[in-house]
Write a structure and sequence with these properties.
It is built from 19 helices and 27 strands. By secondary structure, it is an alpha+beta fold.
Length: 642
């Protein structure tokens, strides 16, 4: 008997912290960055929704993007996914914070979804035959599209089914992206198979090339531990081939993921066995808990979008379960024999025709309203519903997705007041500026309110400037922020004008504007970090160190502040100070995927030291010598391409 139950899941967890109040003008706007997390882990309970039948137990963490955290195969007492023993965010997602493990649902914008560390709406749906369905859904603020995830586990099923639905309610085409990313344990005997003989390989060195698989450059890519560097491998699966991907161990057992035809893309991601990749694995978890990812997406690769027509609705069905196959054939050196054998097994277990039929049969369920709301997501869908109701527009989603007023919170207060009262509420210039909005309909509402004199204050002009900037109306954005400053100085307008000055290659002006911003809001770590960086770019390292020394202790102690201090010391040739900082093992919680700041500091310090000692210039020969003779300590090495 299949059941759905609500409980908790406990694990050591770092604090996610508060959202960054600065608009990510060249990033994830209108979303705010989630970059305030730490690396201090304490036991924490997360809301968990469990689907279970006699074969499988699926655990979803609805507060964390609806992540399918565990898929446990009961008859074999085997976990099919990689279950991270901790919750530790790192800087890999669109909004910065991301964590490894389970199956992640990525939508709208290339990369790890904006909702990966945020709650989704979660609801219970009941089929006529009593089958419980977990529904998760949200309103995407970038593409202005709702999406719906329905997970169900029929009584006698050996597969978990996850039905996806994306609706474009707009009267124009939108670029769409979707990838379901599955983490599984990394082991030396695991082979990843997919029904393809060519792949697009990206090795984090700037270009993607088409290669034969499994052997490329003398390396068998189907065994992830053979890869020394981080790499993506996008399989070229034919249009008439059932898409699937699996990771099978030495006994021929492991997770398999397959789907209906719309979800065509499949990918393998590995961190690689080099020191940087090993460090990343531990940085995101604990020692000796490595993983790889097998992924499934709408497009061939993650460098592209698919055009979604106006008014379109896209649906597909994914299935997750245990694959058991003859290990001698699975690990046959002849790739074609191996993958074709697994392909036959897939079609015996769950052929394409049955998946397509099950997708069609689930249409009525997908339209059914929830029987119970388990958890609210963001209030942005409810705000959009209210706006459409007020303007007489048609609903943006069917009754299967309920965006009720109970989901509205402080983030929507400014915009709800503008909608209902025609005024954007005034706040003090040093108060946080509120959540950002860039949707064109809201821009018109705010512009009309300003023109009528109802919202002619610094905050309205600040928000208008962000809207103009998002539309690439840079001159209008500048005028709006200057108008905001003229009405009342605020740290937020100073900062946004500094971003423009930086783009216009005016580093001195950018630094001075950020100093003015920090004088008004010294307690904002992200603002102080931007100011430090601007002072460095303006070749004012001593000013930067003086600024650093006057910051509040809790801002000064931020992990990145030590790194910026080392950069300033390097510019001033204070190599002893640089080495002391690096040898102190600085921890930068939000070091970015692909960022090599720490190892570069290490190399540049040694280059300067040798150049001074031997009275030689720093050239390519010296750089190569340093990289050969002075490898960085493991705690500094996040390089993925070595």
């Amino acid at each position: 008997m299949s059941e759905l139950r609500i409980g908790t899941y406990k694990m050591p967890a770092a604090s996610l912290g508060s959202e960054n109040p600065l608009p990510a003008l060249d990033g994830c706007i209108p979303h705010r960055l989630q970059d305030d997390y730490d690396r201090t882990r304490k036991e924490r309970e997360f809301r968990a929704v469990v689907l279970e039948n006699e074969f499988l137990r699926a655990t979803f963490l609805t507060e964390l993007g609806g992540r399918l955290w565990s898929l446990f195969h009961k008859p074999s007492n085997r976990e099919l996914l990689y279950v991270n023993p901790v919750f530790q965010p790192g800087n890999l997602a669109i909004r910065n914070a991301w964590f490894s493990g389970g199956v992640e649902w990525n939508i709208a914008v290339r990369g790890h979804t904006a909702y990966t560390c945020s709650p989704l709406f979660a609801a219970r749906v009941q089929e006529d035959d009593g089958l419980p369905v977990l529904r998760m859904y949200e309103w995407d603020r970038v593409r202005l599209t709702p999406y719906q995830i329905d997970a169900f586990l029929p009584d006698d099923s050996k597969f978990l089914f996850v039905r996806m639905r994306i609706i474009n309610p707009n009267d124009h085409e939108v670029p769409m992206y979707w990838w379901s990313n599955t983490a599984v344990p990394e082991k030396s005997d695991v082979r990843v198979l997919a029904p393809a003989e060519q792949a697009y390989k990206y090795g984090y060195q700037g270009e993607m090339t088409q290669v034969p698989i499994p052997i490329s450059d003398g390396v068998d890519l189907s065994y992830p531990t053979n890869s020394n560097r981080s790499a993506d491998c996008f399989y070229c699966i034919g249009p008439n081939q059932q898409p699937w991907i699996t990771a099978l161990d030495g006994q021929g057992r492991g997770l398999i993921q397959t789907s209906t035809a719309r979800l065509r893309g499949r990918k393998l991601f590995v961190w690689g066995m080099g020191p940087g990749g090993r460090h990343w694995q531990e940085f995101l978890s604990v020692p000796n808990a490595p993983y790889i990812e097998i992924q499934a997406g709408l497009a061939r690769t993650q460098s592209e979008y698919l055009p979604m027509p106006a008014g379109a609705e896209w649906t597909w069905l994914e299935a997750y379960g245990l694959m058991e196959a003859d290990p001698e054939i699975v690990h046959n050196p002849d790739w074609k024999i191996a993958y074709q054998f697994v392909d036959t097994k897939v079609k015996e277990l769950l052929p394409q025709e049955r998946l397509e039929s099950k997708l069609m049969q689930s249409n009525d369920m997908a339209d059914r309203p929830p029987a119970e709301i388990i958890q609210h997501g963001s209030g942005w869908g409810a705000l959009e519903r209210r706006r459409r109701e007020r303007s007489g527009e048609k609903p943006f989603c069917p009754p299967s997705m309920v965006f009720d007023d109970d989901s509205l919170n402080v983030d929507q207060e400014l915009w709800l007041a503008l909608l209902e009262d025609g005024r954007l509420p005034y706040t003090e210039p040093t108060a946080l500026p509120g959540a950002w909005m860039v949707q064109s309909e809201w821009q018109k509402l705010l512009q009309d309110s300003v023109n009528l004199g109802r919202s002619d204050h610094w905050l309205a002009w600040l928000h208008l400037g962000v809207m103009y900037y998002n539309e690439k109306e840079i001159d209008a954005a500048k005028r709006a922020w200057e108008k905001s400053l003229a009405l009342e100085p605020s740290p937020w307008s100073y900062r946004n004008l500094a971003v423009l000055a930086k783009h216009q290659k005016q580093p001195e002006k950018a630094a001075d504007l950020l100093l003015s911003a920090c004088q008004m809001a010294p307690q904002i770590p992200s603002l102080a970090l931007e100011c430090c960086q601007a002072l460095l770019e303006a070749e004012r390292p001593q000013d930067m160190l003086n600024f650093l020394d006057n910051l509040p202790d809790y801002v000064r102690s931020h992990g990145r502040m030590l790194v910026i201090e080392a950069h300033a010391a390097l510019k001033m040739d204070d190599l002893q100070r640089v080495e002391e900082i690096l040898q102190s093992r600085p921890v930068v919680p939000d070091i970015r995927e692909g960022e090599v700041t720490l190892s570069d500091l290490w190399f540049e310090m040694h280059e300067k030291r040798i150049a001074a000692a031997e009275n030689i210039s720093i050239d390519e020969k010296l750089r190569q010598r340093v990289r050969r003779d002075y490898p960085p300590p493991s705690w500094l090495d996040f390089r993925q391409a070595t």
